[in-house]
Amino acid sequence: MGRLDRNISVEDFRQLARRRLPKSVFEFVDGGAGQELTLLDNRAGFERIRLLPRVLTDVSRPDLTTTLWSKTYPTPLVISPMGSCALVRPGADIAIATAAAARGIPYTLSTMATTGIGRMARAVQGPLWFQLYVLKDFDFNRRLVRQAEEFGYSALVVTVDLQTGGKREKDLRNGISIPLRPSPRHLIEGIAHPGWSLRLLRDGFPQFENVRGYLGDTGAGLTIAARVGRNLHAGFDWNDLRTIRDWWKGPLIVKGVLHPGDAAGLIAEGADGIWVSNHGGRQLDGAVSSIDAITTVRDAVGGRVPILIDSGIRTGMDVIKAKARGAAAAAIGRAALFGAVEGRAGVERVLDVLLDEIATGLKLCGLPSFQQVGSDLISPALAG
User: Fold this and answer.
1) Residues carrying an active site annotation
2) Angle CA(271)–CA(276)–CA(278) in degrees, nearest 5?
3) Angle, to 10 degrees, between the axis of helix 316-325 and the axis of helix 290-301?
4) Which segments of the chain have a pLDDT < 70?
5) How many whole angstroms separate alpha carbon 349 and alpha carbon 10?
6) Distance of CA 320 to CAs 47, 56, 77, 95, Å?
7) Distance from first CA to last CA of the chain, Å, rounded?
């Protein structure tokens, strides 16, 4: 058995990341906003759901395919947009994207990625989506969207739950920023994690490649959330969304939706997909968990467009539970980034663990295919 094969769950990779990364960096990845109430409830929401399996069905060949906008994907997984990945390991963005592409899994490149739009497109032969943070400068937003179109990104994901950066207390205490401004604490942590430090020194401190020169103040004392937050368009409204809809001719997905009224309104304005998300518990602390929010969003959407979900997904069974609640696909962020501590091979192992858990879960639920997962799989007492 290979060294990575000893990690048999996403939680194993989370613990590996805890050991391999400086405490400040691990807490940046793993942590949430405020008291982390929403962060914790994202997991608790999945853990509360109980299933009612069927028996005596032929489940010898589990089918994991899912369909989004008339295109069939081999798995129900998507990679969530993540900024600052290179803090975990240089090249982490590309490691995650290439591992995903090999399995036909769409990779969503963040506006705040540490790899640029063009470089990612040249490096990856697989489905790529681009995620837009709506910045104050609409001409700059337009340039980013045009770049994504020119480089062949197939879907645009517009994030709408980042009117400002959430208060991430761990980051404030730890002083994590990009560019990284080493403090005595960081130097001590770096000495204790020489492998991480040597890689960072060899490859250089990461930058937000898509917004180089745009974010302005790079002074010490600004956390990543605060620095990005200063440049976000807090006045972003429905008229602005209509403008972005006019820019993009392919599928447009709106990410950060929890309210059913917003979901219905977004579809009326031309959204092709609704991405239920509370930003992994990193924005509004006290917001409802994504898995609890999805039932009313599902009812409001009424099957008109696909629903995606993220926030708290750590097992293949979470993906099945999300489908039973109405999600066509489930997106992972931290789970993939924990794997990236070991480079592409670590991400591949995380993805394969999740896909194997989904296949096993389908068999034990008595369902031959992922598409057949429905609300009747959830125990009536918890159907929601």
Assistant:
1) 279
2) 125
3) 30
4) 1, 177-182, 215-229, 382-384
5) 9
6) 12, 19, 11, 26
7) 42
